[in-house]
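Bench notes, afternoon.
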Amino acid sequence: MAGFRAARRFRAPGLVESYWEALRAGRPAPARAELDPRGMEDALEYAFILERIAPRQGRLRIAGRHLCDLAGTEMRGAPLSALFAPESRAALGAALAAVCDDPAAAILTVGAARGIGRPGLEGRLLLLPLLDREGRRSRLLGCLETEGRLGRTPRRLTVEETDLRPIPVARRDAPLAAGLAEPAAPYDAPRARGRPQLRLVKSERDG
């Protein structure tokens, strides 16, 4: 019941995970190149792409507006750990490593304590594996949504709980459902309203 209530409060992680599940279609992970922002337009403010640069570290290649609001600055190119208190960075790093190595899906319950000019925050962080151009799980699709007034920034989050779920992989010899062997129709989502909320970074290394 608690999980159901949390899913209703924090909708963006569920939207991102549903889109990711549809993309991977039984594989361990979809490719970074397969992502289309239109597939998760209602969650773009909270979404991000992370590049794994060390076993337990990652830097943001694309950062949704909410992450920048939490930090009080542009987060593109910054480590995700910059949003977390020092005592929670080990738990964050362990979740990042598990997502890429096992692979697994990670849901972290996060929060921020009250302080002068800083109301308490509650939130959920989702981490999901992606493949780079070489087929390595060195990219992550993430979503960070918090509830509560931000107050003075920067805010530093703490990890209160980590839920790691192994990713089920469909058997290669499993029969396909009727119609699924046909080429998929191109995705045609309605245009996003207002200003884009996802910052796109292009580089030769991004894959």
